[in-house]
Amino acid sequence: MSCRSCWRSLWRWKNPIIVILLPLLLLPLALVGESKVSKGAYAVVVMGTFWVLEVMPIAVTSLIPIFLFPLLGIMPSRDVCFNYAEDTIMLFLGSLIVAVAVEKWNLHRRIALRALTLVGPEPRWLLLGIMFPCWFLSMWMSNTATTAMMMPILNAILKQIKRVTLLDITEGNDPGEDDNEIEVTIEVDGIPMEEKPLRNKAHKQDEKSQRNRADEEREFTELAKIFALSTAYAANAGGIATLTGTPPNIILKGHVDKFYRRYNLDPGLTFANWLIFGLPLSVVLFIVTWLWLQFWYLRKRFVCRAQDTRSYDAVKKHLKIEYASLGSMTFAEGVVAVCFLLLAVLWITRDPQFIHGWGVLFPKGFVKDSTPAILISVIMFILPAYPPSWLRCCQTKNDKVAKLTENKSLTKAKKDKDPFTQGGFTPLLTWKTVNDEMAWGIVLLMGGGFALADGCSKSGLSDWISTKLEVLGTLSPWVVALVLALVVAAATNIASNSATATLFLPIVADLAVRLQINPTYLMIPVAVSASFAYLLPVGTPPNAIVFASGYIQIKDMVKIGIVLNVLAVLILVLMSCTLAVAAYGLDSFPLAFLGHTNTTLNGSTIAPIISLNNSHITYNITQR
């Protein structure tokens, strides 16, 4: 067997080889010294490598702490398992179930097509029409589902543009029968001297049409690149707006909650107050992305010659036909929309902070954002998908057609003895639907991330790493935030955003305490920059989806995305140092993080606070 064949054989087995050899090669790190720090480092390196290289499914890697931490003596099994059922995970689980209902009844497709029919036919407005529904829907659904839903619509749009463009070229170049050449005889004194073939005007037109066709092909390729990338970039930007919009945001909340509770402090990060920072940041990134993608396409296309809008008019007509084919909104779509809006209202009004929310009706700490998320999710398993016979006013033609289709599944359900779909009753959601469509892997990933962070803290690894990074204390806090955001933005392009946030956040929290900077001040830029995967397909699933479409190459993503990556980090740090500081009071540092115990005076809790620039100490007094 040749060396090349041997290497190919080994390469096919690379994943199991790495899974077996890496823990064995790193085993001395856990055994030598017998310290918890070295054991924690062993666990982090093994899991981090498995996550980055994806030698096992990411969700499976996330289960490693359950057996590894007890075996290494870092944490007991009971404490490790608690991390997989955190309040934050239940919040994310509830939002995922609601998103499954939106997908099941195609409400997201109706929203997307409606947005596309409202914009103008010009490329810049069509680009906006593609980006806006992706941006909005990814606030509430997974970025992956949003992009996957949008790609068939995008394919139809590009197909219409190409069809009409090629038709225009064909119709504009029909030179007739005599379009090859003309024989010209030259005579001198009546004697024929020479015959020369001359190209006629029709032949020149044929050459021109060839050039036009090549130009149109290049322009279509550029347009397809921009449209495809816009779906992924808009989905990534939209997820930043809400706390449940993207995994790094929810991972941030989980880490902030655990870290602050360790010192008996209130993290104060809720769905409602995240909108104060996340939504404006998301809007700015959306606008910047739209302008940059416009510029990238327009500088190559519109500077040279005016655009023929006939192809885009055809696209507009096609989109209107597609939207009309959906018919009127069904009963199920309406119920899902109401539940969706009700959940958003409950999240926002639970603790808006500038006024008392409905959360004050219950004992302090009893009701969290996960409460309405799970409540609405459970209700969706009870509400009917079709109106009962006595509610004929709510029935539409689409409901009747859907009901006839549903009868087939009802027959199957009776055979399967499913009690929830027998007797003509069909709920909005069934457990089978949720079980099949739910992204269970990300739930396990979050649990594994929280367990890993807990292990880093219990083993002392986070504290040890933060001492090595104390050199950053010579820099201004905003510079530290910028450096960390750039590092994470680079890392997230070669590893998943969830894994990147999971690995960096616990270390950054302890580093902030060492530097006497409010931990949230550094954790927000780190978590959000994990969503800035603009360069490579492996960065996020939306990138992989648009890359798989065949419209773009890696070099295209790098050339277009590098500018967005830098701009996004700069905008993030600027808004973190201004808007986030003002919204969350991040210009002060509670001394409780340094191990100082809060003292009480006349029934009040006195928490010492040190300013961000360490120039003075103040005291916050809260009545019990």
Automatic annotation (TrEMBL):
Key words, A-Z: Membrane, Transmembrane, Transmembrane helix, Transport
Phosphoprotein as UniProt keyword: no
Main subcellular localisation: membrane
Segment forming the signal sequence: none
Entry keyword annotation includes Transport: yes
GO molecular function, one term: succinate transmembrane transporter activity
Subcellular location: Membrane
PANTHER family associated with the record: SOLUTE CARRIER FAMILY 13 MEMBER, SOLUTE CARRIER FAMILY 13 MEMBER 2
Protein name from the UniProt record: Uncharacterized protein
